[in-house]
């Protein structure tokens, strides 16, 4: 099971990134767990300085941009 982590304080871009990540995981048929990390200290532990951030299994794949579902599919493959 993949652990998809959305790093952000809850802004509109963070919400949309979470929706896109769900769509991507479901498109690939991946079993996943979604985690939203909103505390700045926890976000900084990932080394992310600009949100929204996307991490999978603790590894940061993107930060500071809103990825489309298609872009996330490519990262999850």
Question: Which features characterize this protein?
Answer:
single chain; 77 residues; alpha+beta; Glutaredoxin; 3 helices; 40% helix; 27% strand
Topology, pairings included?
Elements: E1 2-7, H1 12-28, E2 32-37, H2 40-45, E3 53-56, E4 59-63, H3 69-76
Can you put this structure into words, describing what you see?
This protein has one domain: Glutaredoxin (3-Layer(aba) Sandwich), CATH 3.40.30. It is α+β, with helices and mostly antiparallel strands and 77 residues long. It has helices at residues 12-28, 40-45, 69-76, and strands at residues 2-7, 32-37, 53-56, 59-63. The chain has 3 helices and 4 strands. Strands 2-1-3-4 form a 4-stranded mixed sheet. Helix 1 crosses helix 3.
Strand order of the largest sheet: 2-1-3-4
- What is the strand tally? 4
Number of helices: 3
Q: How would you describe the shape?
A: globular
Low-confidence stretches: none
Count up the domains: 1
Average pLDDT, all residues: 96
Task: Sketch the major β-sheet.
Answer: 4 strands, mixed
Highest CATH level, the class: Alpha Beta
CATH topology name, in short, is: Glutaredoxin
Give helix % range.
Answer: 40-55%
Radius of gyration: 11 Å
The CATH superfamily is known as Glutaredoxin
Distance between the termini: 13 Å
- Give the SSE string: EHEHEEH
What is the SS-derived class?
A: alpha+beta
Strand content: 25-35%
Which CATH-level-2 architecture?
3-Layer(aba) Sandwich
